[in-house]
Structure formats: structure tokens, C-alpha cells
Fold this protein.
Amino acid sequence: MVGEAASAYSPILLMFGFAVAATAPALLISRLVAPRGRDTPVKYLPMECGQVPKGEGRTHFMMQYYAYILMFVVFDVVAIFLYAWGSALLELPREATLPIIAFLGIMFAAMAFALRQSGRRDIW
Amino acid sequence: MSVIAPRFKFSEFVKSIIENAFWIVVIMTLVGLPMAMIVLFYVDLPVIDGALVTPFLALTWLSHPELALPLLKSFLTSDAFRILAFPGFGFAALVAAGTIFVERKMLAKLQLRVGPFYCGKIEGILQLAGDGLKLISKEIIIPAKADKPLFIVAPLLFVGAAAAFVALIPVAPGWVVADVDVGLLAVFAVIGFFPIITVLSAWSANSKFPFIGGIRALYQMVSFEIPLILSCLGVVLLTGTLNLTEIAQSQQVIPWIVLMPIGAIVFFICMLAELERIPFDLPEAESEIVAGWLTEFSGMMYGLVQLGSYVKLYAFSALFVVLFLGGWSGPVFWPPLEQELLESGQTLGPIKLQLPGLPLFSQEFFSAVIWFVLKTAAVIFFVLLPRGVFPRIRIDMLLRIGWYKLIAMAFVNIFVALGLVYAGVVGPGGIF
């Protein structure tokens, strides 16, 4: 049973593998064909618009976006849960929609509150 | 500029050819043949007309046209053909190449630049080949402090993930690489890989501009994923299925874009953001952060990322067609094949050609594919158009659009869909 269900997905993996296997030779051919210039240490420096690079490449970079990531973690799952209801809507009785409407209301209100909070720069 | 080797000796030239031939023969015998045996051991050989098609039999049949045809037919229905050629990677790569060509020419025309017109005599037709040749002949430079394995693998993973996305898109009835029951959810699962790959490549480059670009890409893809998911929910409400083939077939009468224009607009805008196209190309903003997360990619690695992003563009456009524009539905206009030609064959002077088992494809198939490609091309055109028209938006505007306007519009779209179901317009006993 599990194997049958999984075998429906195997073409996706095969496609992924084929794409990787089909495009990897391009890198090899490029390596063989391309002229290799003189090696200097400057050539392998990270790109910083002609300046000599300063400091670490991986720095702590403040995007002030943490609130939105938290919201994504919550509401992405909630939005996917709606699909369980959505795909069965036509078979469900009409009364079954009311709790979902309530759920949508709670979700929308929570999202509005979270957005309002995430807009406050003083607490982040 | 390279010149011919200064000391050219014919004897050494011949010697090098013989040496190469020797090594090819040795490697083929020691590695190639055992590999072929191992592969053949695990491959399910097809049974045609009650005979197991071994490689020997297949090679024998290939020399007879009337015997080769069933072999060809069985190959056309196999998984290998689907993955390699038609709804799979070959088709997607072809469409991607066409998109790159059309984009260059269209932008040149929009911005009154004449560069891409000159390469090749007719309308710059060799531009694409020139681009490919340029990319493949450039030296690949990897920064000294970069995480090399990850940095090299990232473009390949990007192409692979885009191909996995293509695998889920149905192109004609029954022509899909992976016909999954929960196709739409599988699409969201595959889309979820792109931010990971982007951040991976940006992190492994160990450079500042790719890092900033990668973080921007992550945040942008993440914030537009929720409206994307919610805007597809309307379609699922009306069709009651997650299978993309059934969703496309449910639009024989009316495409959902007519009933749910808001959902289609939200989906299209989210699509632009997920594809990092102008006006949402903040991760690659060339006037701010050089080339964003692509800064350190050089030569063919950059080419592979571009290939992956255009394959992804095709996949998203095709998904839009499947969800909102009715997929392959449209009037059958491909002329039926002549019965006389099929039964008695074609006579050309002394040669009489008659192949039993034709046609390989039905006229419905051709018609469906042509409709699908036409619709996809139209959507791709509208994805390309903003690049020549709009400026880039600021990051706070991006946030405001993604989290406030689009999510609110997606909620409105859900209620529009609910209203359509309960007003009796769609669904069991409805008009459509």
C-alpha cells in the first residue's frame, strides 16, 4: 500500500535526478573548453565592486523581518489545512461550512493582530 | 586569444588520436559494458506482441519499419519518454530556451536597443546560440573562501527542483510525468525547496552581496507563498479535487478566470514575486546589490541558474494555465488524418510506404497540445512584459503588497468561490 502510494511520486524524483544528470555535463564541458587564465590571489576574492573585501562574508545581517517569518510558520500551515476542507466541500453538508467560516474569521483576526504587532518597530 | 599550437607535428596529432581511441576502447570495455549489463538487469523490458523485447530483438526490429513502429509506440508511452522528452525536461528546456530568446528580442524592441538583432542574418536568430557559447567558454571562478561542494551543487539543485516542478504539470489529457492525487499540494511542496536552495547558494558563496540577496530572496519567497496558497484554494473549492489533470478537465465549459478574476490576479502577482521578476526582482537588484544571490556565479554556473529560473517560469505559467485558463481545453481544429493514407499507404514512384499502426497520436492530442502551448505562451508574454515597463518596487512596498493587500484579496476570493458554490452556479446541480 505504502509502496504503491509512493510509486506515484517516483517520477518526480526521477525527473529531478535526470535534470541534474543532464545539466551537470555542462559544467564539466565548460571546465574542459574554457581557457584558464593566470591564477592570482586577487582573482579569487569575493566580489565587492573593486574594493578590497573587508571583514567576514557571513555577517549578522539585520533585516527586521523576524515577525513575518513567525507569521509565515503559523499561517502557512493554517492555509494548507484549509485544503483538507476545500477539496471535500462539494460532498460536505452545508452546515459544515459554518465552523470553517468561524475558523477563517479567527485566522483573519489573528493575522490582522500579528500584522499590527509586526508593524511596531519599537518592540522588535 | 588562443592561437594554433606553435609546434604542430602531424605525427603527434595522429598519436594523440590513437591514444584517445585506445582509452575510449579500454574504458568502454571495462566500465561501459558492465554498466550496461547492470542497467539492463534492473530495467523492465517491454513485451510487444507477446515477445520480450531484449536489446538484440530491439536492434533487429529497428531495421524493419513495420516492426520498429510498435517499438516506437511502446517507447512513446513509457515513463522514460515522459521524463526525457515530451511533458518533461526536454519540452520544458525547449520552452525555456524560446522564452530567453523572445525575452531578449522583446525587451530590445521595447527599449529601442538593436543589439540582439544583428547576431545571425534573420532577426538575430543566432543570439541564443551565441549566449550559450559565451557562457560555456567562460572560466568558472569560485571564491577562495566559498564552500565549494555546496557552491557547485546549488545551480544543479536549482535546475533539478525546477524540473521536479515541471514533472507535476499536465500538458494534455493523460500526458503528465507524475499524476499525483494531491498534485497541487505537491506543487507547493516543490516550491518550498527554492528558498532553501537560494539561501544555500548565497551562504556557501561567503560573500556579502550574495548573502544580502539570498536573505532578500528567502523573505520575498516566504511572504508571497501564503497568498499563493490561498489564491489556489478558490479553484479547489469549485472543483473539489487536488489533482491537476482533473482541475484542468473541470474547465471544459468555462475557465475559472472568468468566475474568479481576483484569485487569478493574486496568483499572477505572487507568481511574479516567486519568480523574482521585475517589479519584484529585489533579490537580484542590479543597481543596489550587483546581482544579488547570483553575484559570485560565473560562466556556466550562472547559465544553469538562468536555465533553472526559466524552466521555473514555464512551470509557473503552465500552472496558471491549468488552474485558471482551462488547461488544454479548446475546440479541436487539427485536421483528421486521411483514412486512405493510413490504410493503403503512400506511393512515391517506385517506393511504396505503408506503415500499420499509424497514427501515433490522435488529433485530440495535437489540438490539446497546441492549445496548451498557445495559452502558456500568452501567460509567459504577460510575465515578460513588466520587465520592459515597470520599475523595481521598494522592499516595504513589497511587504505591504504581500502581507496586506494580496492576503486580503485572497480571502475575498475564497468567499467569492463559496458564494458561487452556494448560489448554485458551480458544483452538483449547478450551471457549470
User: Anything to note?
Assistant: Residues 10-42 of chain B form the longest helix (33 residues). Chain B touches chain A through 84 residues (CB under 8 Å). Residues 279 and 391 of chain B are 6 Å apart (CA to CA).
